[in-house]
Amino acid sequence: MLFLFHAHSGLRYLVLLAAVLAILYLAFGWLTRRPFDAPARILTASFTGLLDLQVVFGILLLFFRPFYPALTGHVMMMVFAAIAAHGLGVAGKKQTDPHKRYGITLAGVVLALALIVGGILAIRQGVFQTSLS
Q: Is 65 inside a domain boundary?
């Protein structure tokens, strides 16, 4: 199960990168009031899909790794991050005004990223720190 741990730990960087790219593009679209376009949908879907995969890896790790109290905060923050990303993403899709759609979708990614960082810090001293604990 060491492979699963490393996959989960390494995927974190892709999730963070996808979040930053989505935030930058969505913020640009929101500020310029441009139509919600394919790159915005692709970046948002990529972030959400990678986050979903990360959650699945994390759930699998719960069955194969020792449980310790800090994991409770980590798991809760990550589940809330996935809920925020999906919930505000769906709410954004229902908007007909592109400015509101960008804003709501951007809020979902920013909130999810904040929860992800908090979840990582619940079990590590830094976002980019890696350990086998």
A: yes
